[in-house]
């Protein structure tokens, strides 16, 4: 296996350069489910006939004839020893553009098609959800944020996760997992290292839903005044603030409902509060607390794997992991982030989510 295509093309021109002979490092390719553009990093030699990549230039990369990356130079850095380091992003990068849009009720696919057209990027809906999310006003947000909002609401309602992925030169809306790979990565096959971490730093096993009540003031607050040397009166700000705070405190009360998970016996009480949804009654507040507890009352388990490279090991796919050291076999384990380093020893570093669900909280 080897680099079969590595070309630079001046944007808007037909001029192209073959970079294979001037590559000074193994190309590194990163895909990430956390609403991030695909990234390609590499170094070039600048001796003999130097090729300086300009920002905006097109980079096309194929590995063993597989289409891997089509994107644009966003950064280059000239270093000592005639080396230029280059960072490129694929077309998803243009979903970081900001805009203000009033969204009518519609599906994730509707929103995806709209923002891709606005960003001017080639796109395709591979998997289209039928669930419609409510109307929403997005003011000064990125297209990624707008998609994330709709994807999260769709996942909550349907238990299905959708994500955005750049398939070479086409940005796609896919349903996870896109592929359930038949291969097994394990202690005796392909895996060269691993790390398994469990933490409860962001866990909550008690959720309290708060309703704040503020009664209308029945009397005007007193205002202290003092005479200035010129005879004019001036409000004493500190005195007024203290009186106002006292008045507000006397008129404010909180009502709440709370739910508790069994994990308090193991972890102790880890409580969070959330404001009740607008116009929610008591039963709806309890349901809100239970829904929130279901999302928060679980340890975060993260598995990272170093293994022999494969072009299908990308974010959004799933693969079976078998680790003898911790006596675990994880079927269809979600790949949240994948880092590929191409070279004589083609290797991958994978960040996995342990558990059956495809969770949106990937950061």
From TrEMBL:
Segments crossing the lipid bilayer: none
UniProt domain YqbQ/XkdQ: residue ranges: 28-230, 245-352
Region of interest: Disordered: 217-257
Domain of life, source organism: Bacteria
Compositional bias ranges of the Low complexity kind: 219-242
SUPFAM superfamilies: Phage tail proteins (SSF69279)
Full protein name: YqbQ/XkdQ domain-containing protein
């Amino acid at each position: 296996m080897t680099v079969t295509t590595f070309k630079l093309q001046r944007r808007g021109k037909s001029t192209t350069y073959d970079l294979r002979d001037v590559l000074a490092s193994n190309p590194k390719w990163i895909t990430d489910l956390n609403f991030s553009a695909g990234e390609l990093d590499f170094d070039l030699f600048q001796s003999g006939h130097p090729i300086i990549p300009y920002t905006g230039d097109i980079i096309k990369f194929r590995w063993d004839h597989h289409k891997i990356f089509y994107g644009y130079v966003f950064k280059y850095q000239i270093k000592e020893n005639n080396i230029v380091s280059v960072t490129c992003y694929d077309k998803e990068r243009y979903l970081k553009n900001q805009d203000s849009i009033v969204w009518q009720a519609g599906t994730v696919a509707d929103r995806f098609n709209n923002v891709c057209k606005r960003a001017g990027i080639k796109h395709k809906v591979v998997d289209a959800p039928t669930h419609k999310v409510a109307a929403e006003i997005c003011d000064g947000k990125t297209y990624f944020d707008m998609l994330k909002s709709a994807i999260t609401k769709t996942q909550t309602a349907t238990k299905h996760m959708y994500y955005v992925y750049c398939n070479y030169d086409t940005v796609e809306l896919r349903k996870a997992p896109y592929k359930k790979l038949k291969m097994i990565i394990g202690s005796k096959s392909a895996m060269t290292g691993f790390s398994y971490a469990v933490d409860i730093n962001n866990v909550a096993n008690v959720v309290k839903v708060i309703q704040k009540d503020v009664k209308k003031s029945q009397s005007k607050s007193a205002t202290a005044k003092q005479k200035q040397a010129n005879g004019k009166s001036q409000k004493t700000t500190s005195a007024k603030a203290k009186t106002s705070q006292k008045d507000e405190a006397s008129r404010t009360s909180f009502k709440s409902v709370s739910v508790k998970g069994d994990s308090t016996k193991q972890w102790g009480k880890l409580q969070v509060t959330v404001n009740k949804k607008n116009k929610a009654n008591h039963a709806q507040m309890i349901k809100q607390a239970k829904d929130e507890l279901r999302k928060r009352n679980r340890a975060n388990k993260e598995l990272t794997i170093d293994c022999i490279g494969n072009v299908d090991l990308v974010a959004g796919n799933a693969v079976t992991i078998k680790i003898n050291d911790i006596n675990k076999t994880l079927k269809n384990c979600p790949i949240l982030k994948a880092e590929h380093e191409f070279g004589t020893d083609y290797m991958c570093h994978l960040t996995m989510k342990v558990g059956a669900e495809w969770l949106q909280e990937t950061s």
